Amino acid sequence: MSPALPPEQGSAFATLRQFARKRTPVERCEMCSHELAAEHEHLVEPANRKLLCACGACAILFEGKTGARYKRVPRRVLFLRDFQLTDGQWDGLAVPIEMAFFFKSTPHGKVIALYPSPAGPTESLLSFDTWADIVEGNPILNEMDADVTALLVNRVGHARGSSPAEYYLVPIDECYKLVGLIRTHWRGLSGGTEVWRELGEFFGGLKQRAGCGQESVHA
């Protein structure tokens, strides 16, 4: 049997153990293992839509590379204040909820539509004609970088009659962050108050990054 520690030492060891349990794991670059800050770069592997955390030095190696296994995810967020999308066009996209994101997939050679759900990202069938009509009314969509930039649509407030629909061009990692928020916080049939609070903060953060006046653009 180990000898009992004096009360002062026992208390000190208990404090150290508690600190060790609370210590946040360090994120590291998945290319070179360099320690990362909370806000860091991402790479995407288009073949399987896998995201990798990366340091700036590794991420820049994949900037603008053609045919590379990975692509660097950009950081810019644009709020599309004049985006044109009718209710009929939205219905034609066959998305069962009022939120979705769309991106050009190099491996599939087409635009893919995904919507977040408590089970993860779910793909919705997207006809070429419907997407072509939307692009015709919003030429900025021609500027979407394949695999790394997405059109993010939030029509929840519009459907409820409480706020206008919102449209963004965002880095693809923000879309998967949104999916993660819903998977983590959704409760019951309606989602619960926590998930809607998280979604409000998420879209508020996107607006702040876009500047909504400085980096908001005409669609």
Summarize the structure.
The chain is of the alpha+beta class and 219 residues long.
Helical fraction equals 25-40%
Helix-strand pattern: HEEHEEHEEEHEHEHHE
What percentage of the residues does DSSP assign to strands (E)? 15-25%
Q: Count every beta strand, where a strand is a DSSP E run of 2 or more residues.
A: 10
Global Rg: 22 Å
Largest sheet: 7 strands, mixed
The helix count comes to 7
Strands in their spatial order, largest beta sheet: 7-6-5-8-9-4-10
Principal-axes shape call: globular
Coarse structural class: alpha+beta
Give the number of domains. Answer: 2
- Rounded to the nearest angstrom, the distance between the terminal CA atoms is 74 Å
Features:
219 residues, alpha+beta, 10 strands, globular
Q: What do these coordinates show?
A:
The protein has 219 residues and is an alpha+beta fold. The protein has two domains: 56 residues, no CATH class; 144 residues, no CATH class. It is built from seven helices and ten strands. The chain has a seven-stranded mixed sheet with strand order 7-6-5-8-9-4-10. Helix 6 packs antiparallel against helix 7. The longest helix has 19 residues. It is globular. The chain starts with 6 loop residues before the first helix and ends with a strand.
Which SSEs are present, and which pair or pack?
Elements: H1 7-22, E1 41-45, E2 50-54, H2 56-59, E3 71-72, E4 78-80, H3 87-92, E5 99-105, E6 110-115, E7 122-124, H4 128-137, E8 149-154, H5 156-160, E9 166-171, H6 172-185, H7 192-210, E10 216-217
Parallel strand pairs: 4-10
Antiparallel strand pairs: 1-2, 1-3, 4-9, 5-6, 5-8, 6-7, 8-9
